[in-house]
Amino acid sequence: MKKFRQNRTIKRNVLIVDDEIVNREILGNILSTEYSVSYADNAEHALKILAGADSDFSLVLLDLLMPVMDGFQFLQRRSEDETLKRIPVIVMTSEKESEVRSLKLGAADFIKKPFDLPEVVLARCERIIELFEDKNLIKQTERDAVTGLYTQDYFFEYIRQIEHWDSDTCRDALVIDIERFHLVNEFCGRPFGDLLLSKIAEALEKELPSMRAIACRSNADTFYIYAAHQENYGNVYDAIQSVLADFKMNNIRVRCGLWENVAKDVEAEAWFDRAKIACDQIRGDYTRSIARYDSEIHARQVFEETLIRDLPEAIANKNLVVYYQPKYNIEGDSPRLSSAEALIRWIHPKLGFINPGDFIPLFESNGLIQKVDNFVWNEAATQIRKWKEQFGITVPVSVNVSRIDILDPALEAKLDGILKENGLSSEEYLLEITESAYSENAKRLIEMVENLRRKGFRIEMDDFGSGYSSLNMITSLPIDILKIDMSFIRNMEKDERNMKLVELVTDIARFLNVPTVAEGVETESQLNTLKRMGCQIIQGYYFSKPVAPQEFAQFIEKELERRKGA
Question: What is the average per-residue pLDDT within 495-504?
Fold first, then answer.
């Protein structure tokens, strides 16, 4: 370190404050080999130098007994000034009794008079400068510049220190999320947003002592609090709401996630990850402002993490299985097998059968649905080819294309590759796109659908009526088949409004000159009602539940027998 100091191109500035010219010269000669030295003959003169615009001192060497203003008065003034307190002071004295008083006023070290060997003086100066530079660096990095709260790294370090000395106290992890805060910066400007965050931090700091707590800003609009266990955190919520009210921020919502009595055998970061999970549980739920992380949420989290972890193995070992549900054309006297829908199932080696409703939304939220979809696409194409080879006819199969897939620039190339590998044409391979995908990226969806249709693919709009229904969507999105959501089918004979909606969808399909598929048909009465409405294709338990490929073969055999008898 000393060698590094010697090689500095810009020397640190040191101020020697002493009324004796001889002392100034002796110290100046010693220090000038390492530092750029300035001089003051009394403390008042020193304060003026330190207050200068170009003042940048790393150390003050201070005599105590001086005219005009002595060293003790200087130390007193320094203790009241935050800027001066960042500059260390070494007191020069020969009086032992002055050391204690100087220490109480903030002196960092002493150099005895008469002065020690030059090497000793230099070593003491260097040590104090390094200590204060490290201390100032810590102060600059431990606090968030906007709020003055701890930064996240120091927050967790202090938690570890707290737990080291007091691990028996029950404590809580609280996450506070200021929802839609980005709108504040967008409409009011970042300076206004920073001011609001600083006032929220001030309000939180007032609550911390009574809770025996520390806090940090985790990111732009999220705060963490680590507190001794509290029965109620309404004080924290009310404090923030009061600030928002003062700033007239009525459109900003505060959400809190709490893990009470955190498990000490879990890493501190995980405490707040789990509190954040609870916080996210009430996103969009305006009936609650705070949610608690509990055993049910924990079990769900463990379950989801297990699914995420096991997905690659499930694909490799084909624990994911594609089932097929037949679709029947009901025009004419007797139903005819027209196609099938590929539906994914997961037979987990330890968890058993996993409901698609448990893993499909999960994988849609984290992007892993692409892996599932790619698996289904390949399996379905392979199965179409096998049935074609076995029975001599094609049973077109529809596969789902998720909203995540729509954003994939390689989508068309992937589908082309799958067809080419299995010797299939695009007419044998149907694509289902959910209605909700339109609302998220309409322009991209329309562009992709048009490209796919030019290649000969037929496009089914799935779950029509359950999501983003609009006449604009229907007129602008090119489709070949309209699929009525099963919730309407199941309730149409119980609820006249659902019946009217089904009739409306079939009328829209007729207007667009595309066939309709009704899914979820379970009874003959439903089938007859849909047939009278003009619905062409039926799918549901009335004909069959989704079955494995070998079971589906019986439907193909029956269809071949029907054709022979026709």
Answer: 87
